[in-house]
Write a structure and sequence with these properties.
The protein has seven helices and seven strands; from the N terminus they run βαβαβαβαβββααα. The chain is α/β, with parallel strands linked by helices. Helix 4 links the parallel strand 4 and strand 5. It starts with 12 loop residues before the first strand and ends with a helix.
Length: about 180
Amino acid sequence: MIPLYLDPEEARVAVVGRGQLALRRLQWLRAAGADPDVYSDEPDAELVLASGQRLRSNLPKTAEMAAYRAIWIADLPLELAKPIASVARALRVLVNVEDVPALCDFHTPAVLRRGKLTLAAGTGGASPAVARAARERLEEAFPESWGEALDDIAKSRTTLRERGAGFDELVTDARKRLAEHGLN
């Protein structure tokens, strides 16, 4: 697996589905800062409510799919999900079909956010439960204060870069500041 972080400001994404798994994926993407379009031919009431203006009351057509960098498919029968995934792949759009690893170009990790610090645990689709257990361990190891420390380090980094600091100086400063925050 190649871990990547997509910038939600730059990478347009969509959710295709009908029920609770699609809703969960929508919420996960929004927590990451994305505002995905949602395609559903039979959305449940909660998905309708959560999607708001982003809901399209159909499954995506080829021209629509071409606009995205990544598409998550959840709560859709395999006979509907498979052709959507195939078209997305032909368009070079990354696709994830929930719980069908053979139809996935990528897998959705278990994520921990501490401010701008994002930590992810993934198993390549082998066991989402194991990824979740790993994320829970990360929660213990990385308290909320990591987000505050990162903000401090980022400000210092900007100042140091403006003064022409090199890589080694930036690393030294970051480690010093982590220690000052009690996170060494």
